Amino acid sequence: AGAGSPRVLRAALTAPSPQDWEQRQEEDTLLIERILLLVRNVLHIPPDPTEEQGVDGDASVHDRVLWALHISGMDDLLKFLASAQVEQQWALHVLEIISLMFRDQSPEELAALGQGQVAAEHGEDTRELESLRQRELAEKRARALQRPSRHSRFGGSYVLQGLKAIGDRDVVFHKGLHNVSA
Questions:
Q1: Which GO terms describe its cellular component (predicted)?
Q2: What are the sequence ranges of the domains in the chain?
Q3: N or C, fewer C-beta in 10 Å, the chain?
Q4: Is 173 within 8 Å of 158 (Cβ atoms)?
Q5: d(Cα 90, Cα 33) in Å, to the nearest integer?
Q6: pLDDT tens digits along 2-17
Q7: Residue 34 phi/psi, 5° resolution?
């Protein structure tokens, strides 16, 4: 299965423009369903160990079909069909195709593959955050050293006892403290 075949199928699937989804003809609907069934049936073909006697690490026929689907962009179209609200009628076909895509993979392998990337990204993010934190602390220390020492202009508030203000309250006097002995 060369990359050209999935391109033709993808072109046939995308022929009706997205604006015409409501006005899709019966032939277009049948064509889309037949293409999805064809992709499903191709992926459903079981592996033949006698035919696939390659070198260890060689891509199987199933892997090459998946690669051709990826190169043609059919996988993106399948993701669109799976997530578009107006395309819910194809959800089961797309789900079956995706299930067949992962047929030869064990859940442990898939989880380990994702964890390796996540751990590498997490380690890189941690190092980047730590370097940003160190740079921020250094800038904070530099700003603290450059700041001139300033004296507060607030000298205090005093209540003058024995001197009444309006309403029989004591007078409050605000004075800047310039000379401590005064």
A1: replication fork protection complex
A2: 16-47+59-105
A3: C
A4: yes
A5: 8
A6: 545 666 666 666 655 4
A7: -65, -40
52 phi and psi, to 5 degrees? -100, 70
Q: Model's pTM, two decimal places?
A: 0.48
Nearest to 24 by CA among 89, 69, 73: 89
What pLDDT, in 10s, does the model give residues 113-170?
766 666 677 778 888 889 999 999 999 888 877 766 665 555 667 777 777 777 777 8
pLDDT digits (tens, 9 = 90+) for 50-102: 666 655 556 678 888 888 888 888 888 888 888 888 788 888 888 898 888 88
Q: Length of the chain, please?
A: 182
Nearest-5° angle of CA 16, CA 29, CA 21?
Answer: 45
Integer Cα distance of 67 and 101 in angstroms: 11
